[in-house]
Amino acid sequence: MTAETTETTGNTRTTTGFRTVTAYAAERPNGPLVRTTVRRRALGTRDVAIDVHFTGICHTDLHQVAEDWGAGTFPMVPGHEIAGVVSEVGPDVTRWKVGDRVGVGCFVDSCRDCANCRAGLEQYCTGEGGTVWTYNSTGHDGLTTYGGYSTGLVVDEAYVLRIPDALPLDAAAPLLCAGVTVYSPLAHWGAGPGRRVAVIGLGGLGHLGVKLAHALGAEVTVLSRSTRKREDALRLGADDHRATTDPATFTELAGRFDLILNTVSADLDLTAYLGLLRVDGTLVQLGAPEKPVRVSAGALLDGRRSLAGSQVGGLPETQEMLDFCAAQGVTAEIELVGADRIDEAFRRLAEGDVRYRFVIDASTI
Ligand code: NAP
Ligand code: ZN
Ligand code: ZN
């Protein structure tokens, strides 16, 4: 990260304190990811500068670059599964020192004052400025945020997570989004011994859902499009694996589960899946396809079933998840890629060809 950039405006050269970092950005919707530079804000008194070591490629990065959820701001630097090391701290920073192993997840600021922020649910901030997402968002300073497909970040110390020594930085990076996104509903809906959990879709979120539900003591079933990933599912900790293309899956497993996590990135008719819940069971929607969720009312009325949603996890819960993963030896299964292969990784992720998370080696940026 180059600090103290000197800018030239006409004949005036001003040292602004902005930092320049190398990054990979989409310059237009659906555009390829190209090497460029972006500016980070000057280090504030409570900011830490982080050297990015690894960044996971989340399916959300594909949705955002494709503008699946609405207009994006370009150039866009994706990446919200960031693992690195503190390289500099502002004068009032108390929590971190140079050399600390840290992570940054899906958001980098929020109002800090609303009921949700005070409860550690910063991802649901309702205060002024709302949750500031790690990229494709506007900070409270009015600047566009740029994500982790870059060599360095500047983040307020309160929005930084500690990565325990037991976790390797590359395989820990996906925990910052995928990990907490599945951990949060598992914890909220009480996955544990004696509870039956199903995970729809064995991708980035799904494979961590299996590992974490198993580590929490629940009985886990994977519901996947085919039997191709059966061996993997069992190795990751699943007790059972069923193909959703086989109609017998829906009759044999009817009324079985307490909790179902739907991690599928595409549009899915949830009616048949709701039939797999027992009375008072809950299906939690985690995937975020661009089309509205479809479900028949009868599938909810019958069995007093619930359809819920959940978005990432707050700061305290993210730290709790990282500590739990360290204690249980849970990390992501990753395929490390150089920055020159980001487009290839995007293509393969769109096709479902990943086991189970691409992670960018930021030293190649
Ligand atoms: P991913 O790695 O691509 O995994 C998605 C899985 O869904 C695939 O591996 C595949 O599993 C299944 N799938 C894909 N296309 C399908 C189709 N057409 N029909 C049925 N199944 C299909 O993606 P991810 O990174 O885990 O993200 C999944 C979704 O969660 C994305 O929409 C992402 O934006 C969203 N997300 C939400 C949150 C949140 O806070 N709620 C956080 C992060 C991500 P099988 O091959 O096993 O069928
Ligand atoms: Zn994500
Ligand atoms: Zn708030």
Could you give a short description of this structure?
The chain has 365 residues and is α/β, with parallel strands linked by helices.
Structure, explained:
Helix 9 (297-301) links the parallel strand 16 and strand 17. Residues 5-15 have low confidence and may be disordered. This protein has helices at residues 59-65, 115-118, 169-172, 178-188, 204-215, 230-236, 248-252, 271-274, 297-301, 315-328, 342-350; strands at 6-9, 12-15, 19-26, 33-40, 47-56, 82-89, 101-104, 107-109, 132-133, 152-156, 161-162, 196-200, 219-224, 240-243, 257-262, 277-285, 306-309, 334-337, 357-361. It contains eleven helices and 19 strands. The protein is globular, with a radius of gyration of 21 Å. The strands form five sheets. Strands 5, 6, 7, 10, 11, 18 and 19 form a seven-stranded mixed beta sheet that branches. A six-stranded parallel beta sheet has the order 14-13-12-15-16-17, covered by helices on one side. A two-stranded antiparallel ribbon has the order 1-2. The protein has 365 residues and is α/β, with parallel strands linked by helices. The protein has two domains: 2-177 and 313-364, Medium-chain alcohol dehydrogenases, catalytic domain (Quinone Oxidoreductase, Chain A, domain 1); 178-309, 3-Layer(aba) Sandwich (Rossmann fold), CATH 3.40.50.720. Helix 4 (178-188) packs across helix 5 (204-215) and helix 4 (178-188) packs across helix 10 (315-328). Bound molecules: NADP nicotinamide-adenine-dinucleotide phosphate and zinc ion (2 copies).
